[in-house]
Amino acid sequence: MPHTVVVGLGRSGACLHVPVLRRLRARFPELLGSQPIVGFDLRAGMALRDVGVDVLADSLDRLSAYVPPGDTVVHVCTPPATRIAVLTSLAAQGFRRLVVEKPLAGDLGALAAIERLRNGHGLDVIVVTHWLSSALTRRLARLAGTGRHGPLASIAVRQDKPRFARAGDPAHADAFDVEVPHALAVALTLAGPAELIDAGWTDPAAGPLGGAWLSVRHRGGPRTTIHSDLTSPVRRREITLRLRDTTVVGHYPVSADDHHAQLRVGAGPREVFEDEALGAFLLAAYRYFTGAAAAPPGDFAVHAAVVRLLAAARDVAGSPGNEPARAR
Questions:
Q1: Domain annotation for the chain: domains and CATH numbers
Q2: To pair with 44 at 20 to 30 A between CA atoms, which of 70, 134, 170, 195?
């Protein structure tokens, strides 16, 4: 049973990963064990009571003094801007099994550095795009893959949620970092490799953290458009698949408050079902790291492709003369 370290105790680490790990430990003690969860945050002044871990380490470079690197899974929940420094330190200490928050890297230079670290140190990197472990995504993949309703023509994703309280959060450079990586990984998994067609910001007044959109064309022909509005008054995570003979509309859970997804195929009845994707993803990751199962869906190449497409989207969105507008 591996030890667990969580590096980065902001919203992702302390509010998502740690509570889910607690629930999984209670349900699967034979897999995740009961060793103290060790945490570390790059920011000073963290209080143990506020972050949910059992032990707060005093230094990133001394984590190996708290746990055996060869028998530990490290959750890297730091912002993309600090990712290289964190991974470099972990690799130097001998940590190899890593669960890394999305996006894998913030730009192409960081991606190249991570690839060098991965190859040079034998890092086993699993990226947290847990929509790929979602029950809804599995159903969509079956519907698109069987051919029963004809070939896939297009994918459209709307990811809307108000995010005003964290508009100045330094964890994300722009809206392409927030919700878009989840949807883009799903699109690449459902429809295959893609190239960017166009991209932009959704609202010029709100700026890069107010929202973003992009459009890609997959090599097989389908087109995907992803629109993320972080100033919306309502929450929505909607995905629409247009097949030759029908249209499929799915809704992912919009928050950790209620883990239920919805699906409607054509004019058929609406299905509602439990879909706790992050728990399913982390359970699959630990089963993989302990040799009990295959890796969770979405290999390293998919996540590297996501980073490359997001980098291209930023270049287009930020280019002179680009008009912030809704996805075309």
A1: 3-101 (3.40.50.720), 131-286+296-317 (3.30.360.10)
A2: 70
